[in-house]
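Q: Entry one of two.
A:
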Amino acid sequence: MEKITVSDLQNLQSDSNVIQYVMISAGDEYFGIDIKYIDNIVRYQHVTRIPKAQKYFKGVINLRGEIISVMNLRSKLGIPEIDITKNTRIIILKPEEDTSVGIIVDEIKEVINLHEGDIEKSNTSDNGEIKGSYLDGIGKYDNMLISLLNIQNLIIEKDVMN
């Protein structure tokens, strides 16, 4: 598998009908994160625990002098957690100019291009599943279905299970 760097993401050409996603895995499922939200991808490092935080909130890391909150994507989506591996990464997201948050993912797969016609928008109803509100839609890529994450809904502090 080819390594992906942030500069690779920034150098990718954009087309108005194409959206680029970083495809990641969590368990047997594949998810896509719009590259416009990605600030950095780093190897897993020690996360300092914060007492009495939500279950999915793993703590904070110090990344080049910036303290960044880190959540576990598996926990947030209700997928059973696994041990950290050599492929585990922390993706630093920047949904807004002054906000950074890290998410722990099992593995970075590749950068993919999806045309608007390859994306089926998510319905407002989530069929009772917690994951539904965290999705923008489903992308069709190489005979696979990829859940496209809604980064804004994913990182808000309110837990949608209540």
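Q: Entry two of two.
A:
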Amino acid sequence: MGKVISLANQKGGSGKTTISSNLAVLWSNSGYKVAIIDADNQKSLSHWFESRKGYYGENDTGIELLKYNSSDFLEQIKEIKKKFDFIIIDSPPSITMDSVIIVRSSNHVFVPVQPTPVDIVATIPFLDLVKKERRESTVILNRVMPRARLTEAMTLRLRYAGAKIARSKITAKVILAETYSVGRGVVDIGINSPSSREIINLGNEILRKIY
């Protein structure tokens, strides 16, 4: 039975789509059957997938894009889990009924957060929602800049709010944007770059949490 993970946060611009696409590539390249579901109205993950088809060809993406339908999603996901090892959901940047449905369908909710005061304040209500729905959540510090004092201060603020924080951090690097724009992930380029190692470390940490 496959595992459903959602990348979710009511704060827009947190990097949900970039992390979703890179995890999908990582696990697909590792031989797993991976599906992605784009529940965000902006459809950024769908656009990335179209670029991937253009780069690799229609039948060589290694990933399957599935449609999100809120009306029967909780039933639909039961069948999807029988066909894939991992289902990655890119959630809408809001707190709506769709957000609740996605949280309920997930084995674990991962919450990308940029370590800034504005992002932290906007994220805490979403963490409360996940807790209310009795699901486990883990914050992923994303687009981390080399400002250790600010990152440490924001980490302490999240912990004070009761958040669990992944050990793996994703730093701000141009290669993430460059590969995303052509439908690729950083591990498509190679596995030894700093960005690839960060994605691999994050993917391994997620696997430990969901199994």
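A: Comment on entry two: The chain has one domain: 3-210. The mean pLDDT is 95.
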